[in-house]
Design a protein that fits this description.
363 residues; Rossmann fold; 6-stranded parallel β-sheet; 9 helices
Length: 363
């Protein structure tokens, strides 16, 4: 979405008040020309008076009252509460942006599947494919430089987030059966600074999931992740995307060069980050773009806002939701989210039983 095409801010409200809701408040607050926050609906407004004063927002006691004043509503509630809240909002007919995951167990899955079948106006805020480096890698794939991509290895996000990246890179539209083998391991690690908590120099235990996904159309993937990768500098992300004419390894691209140097010619280049506010720069600390040589692979549409990559992706989900509310332009449907959740739950079953699990494309 080109943000300069928006003539007035889109009005949205949030159901729920927690750390994720506050993250959206921070993002929207930096972009008042794009987004206007109507307020937040909570069960007990008295409990959140201090938070409301901090953010300068109005509290509503019911989602129904909030929805009357919004172009769309964002849900930021617990996994257990999400299905019921989404059903409630779907009955109002207001467009809804659901925070991930919209369901976390079999019962919730069935309730959300019913909403998808009924065509409820719901999109899901799956931000990982929208993060700048993931978007830049996808641009390389679309360019055809590395040919037909049939295998990826993702160690950058857990569960359904990791699977969304896998399907994104493989252009897998949930049309193929998938067989999953998985294992779960316990590993020691120095205490992780989880969401700002104070840490000491002591060991704790973390879980590492490794899963192999084999699709019936011949595509395959490996998902490898441990939650400390989100917070600890001791655990780094890794990505490998293999195509018929090259591959992407993290931010390094190797691709064939047709007609240059004869058969077997190739080139290697890096995806580079151009960011202001570093060293002698007096500009704001903000990402400008990502480049591969002289080619722009990604441009930050929210420059010069001082956003992290995850916040850029969150702003993009809000912008795409604005398009959806106005023009029904879908970007990550309930059907897609349900497929990612289904594959994620299958990984959990495979890891728990030690046996392969087969998942059909039909929901």
């Amino acid at each position: 979405m080109e943000v300069n095409k928006m003539t007035q801010p889109v009005r949205f409200g949030i159901v729920g008040m927690g750390w994720r809701a506050e993250a959206y408040l921070r993002v929207a607050g930096q972009l008042p020309h794009l987004f206007e926050i109507v307020g937040i609906a909570v069960r007990d407004p008295a409990k959140y008076k201090d938070a409301a004063a901090k953010w300068g927002i109005r509290l509503y006691s019911t989602p129904e009252e909030l929805a009357k004043h919004c172009d769309f509503v964002l849900t930021a509630v617990s996994k257990a509460s999400a299905p019921a809240v989404l059903q409630q909002l779907a009955s109002l007919g207001v467009p809804v942006l659901a925070e991930t995951p919209p369901a976390a167990d079999e019962e919730g899955f069935k309730r959300i599947a019913e909403l998808a079948e009924a065509g409820a106006p719901i999109q899901v805020a799956e931000q990982y494919p929208l993060q700048p480096h993931h978007a830049a890698r996808a641009a390389v794939i679309r360019s055809g430089r590395i040919g037909d991509v049939r295998h990826v290895q993702v160690s950058a996000a857990h569960g359904y987030h990791g699977i969304s990246l896998i399907r994104h890179y493989l252009s897998e539209k949930a049309g193929a059966e998938c067989e999953i083998a998985a294992r779960r391991f316990e590993l020691p690690i120095l205490e992780v600074p989880y969401r700002g908590r104070a840490v000491q120099d002591k060991l704790e235990t973390e879980l590492q999931d490794i899963a192999i996904l084999s699709f019936s159309n011949g595509k395959s993937a490996l998902l490898d992740f441990t939650r400390s990768q989100y917070f600890s500098p001791l655990r780094q992300n890794r990505l490998l995307i293999r195509g018929s004419h090259g591959e992407i390894r993290d931010n390094e691209v190797t691709s064939s060069i047709s007609g240059s140097g004869g058969p077997g010619g190739y080139e290697t280049w890096s995806i580079r980050r151009l960011q202001d506010g570093q060293e002698g720069s007096l500009a704001p600390l903000s990402l400008r773009e990502l480049r591969g040589g002289a080619e722009r692979l990604y441009r930050n549409p929210y420059y010069p806002a001082p956003f992290s990559d995850d916040e850029i992706a969150m702003a993009e989900t809000l912008s795409r939701m604005a398009d959806y509310a106005k023009q029904d332009t879908r970007f990550y449907s309930l059907q897609e989210a349900l497929m990612d959740i289904r594959l994620s739950m299958a990984i959990d079953r495979a890891a728990a039983t030690g046996q392969s699990v087969r998942v059909s494309p039909a929901l």
